[in-house]
Amino acid sequence: MARREGARTKRTLLWLALLVVFTGYLIWALRAEEAFQVANKKLEYTDAGVVVSGEVRNTAATASAVNVEVTFFDGHGRQLGKEVIALSNLEAGATAAFRTQPQRLADVKDYTIYVNTGRNMYGN
After folding, report:
1. What number of other Cβ atoms are within 10 A of residue 58's Cβ?
2. Which of 15, 23, 58, 60 could be cross-linked to 90 through a Cys-Cys bond (beta carbons 3.0 to 4.6 Å apart)?
């Protein structure tokens, strides 16, 4: 009986080790695929309205045009507004600053930034 328990424990530990290795690989692979990185992002409350600013860095090997899509949310997660900023011809390795126009929105508590590179090879 004790022999069976030892074998079961070894199998369980082996599966857990495989799961950890696979998860680590998956995280590494997805990070390596990120062609654009957003840095120094911040939400500012100005007299003219709410502004989001930051920088986009092109880590790809080629130049590309992208749209930076900023979406504003209230404290309950409801979308309040959205703005798209076009960055044309962002060279490989280059960094470009972006800043939304002041938005007259009440109760902005959160935001998301999505770097849209256009359609993928599947048309999505």
Report:
1. 23
2. 58
Reading the block at residue 111, the tokens are 């935001």
Q: What are the angstrom distances between the C-alpha of 96 and each of 38, 61, 110?
A: 10, 16, 23
- Dump the DSSP string for 83-106: EEEEEEEE-TT-EEEEEPPPB--S
For the beta carbon of residue 63, count every other beta carbon within 10 angstroms. Answer: 13
DSSP 54: E
- Residue 121 to residues 33, 66, 90, 96, Cα–Cα distance (Å): 15, 16, 20, 25
pLDDT digits (tens, 9 = 90+) for 43-91: 999 999 999 999 999 988 888 889 999 999 999 999 999 999 999 888 9
